[in-house]
Amino acid sequence: MAEEKELMPADIPDWVREAEEAMARGETLDMPEVKEISIKFGKGLVGEPFTSKSGKELVEVKIPNTDPADKTPWAFFVISPKMIHDNKFGKGVWMKLPEDGTTRVSKPFIVATDPNGQRRWDRNVRDIPNTELKSMMEAYKTKDRTGDRESVLGSLKERKEEAAL
To answer: Residue 139: which residues within 8 A CB-CB, separation 6 or more?
Structure first.
């Protein structure tokens, strides 16, 4: 086993010493509370993990287009897989980001088409606030579903009226 040495006062950082002295005086440390937003989305939007050039483990998360008629490639952002958590049902995931932070989002677009039909792509990269990212990721919640489903009670009333005739 390694020998344990006594810590010298110079071994402890100043901010630790100051915090310990403040706690001994009974003062509380007022840390600014960081507000976070949680973003919920489906597992299918999370890509395969990869390693960046700097050696960090990252994962690509796709952002679906809000308009179903929009057939352009989806935008995406890259985040650490440690920040993405499975929900309790196993089909979705969630992550927390600082409310006042920003995230860099990339969206591919066609620059030109060669004479032989090959497309040249480039990326539109922009920083967006995390609150806007949440609304983009959870756009499926705001879509109008009145045309998709009928009321069960409404259709039951119609059938009763038809049967009565």
So the answer is: 64, 66
Residues 6 or more apart in contact with residue 3 via CB below 8 angstroms:
none
Q: How far apart are CA 106 and CA 62, in angstroms?
A: 10
Say which amino acid occupies 114.
D
Residues of the chain with pLDDT under 50: 1
Quote the pLDDT of residue 140: 76
Please report the pLDDT score of residue 94 as a whole number: 92
pLDDT for res 97 = 92
What does pTM read for this prediction?
Answer: 0.64
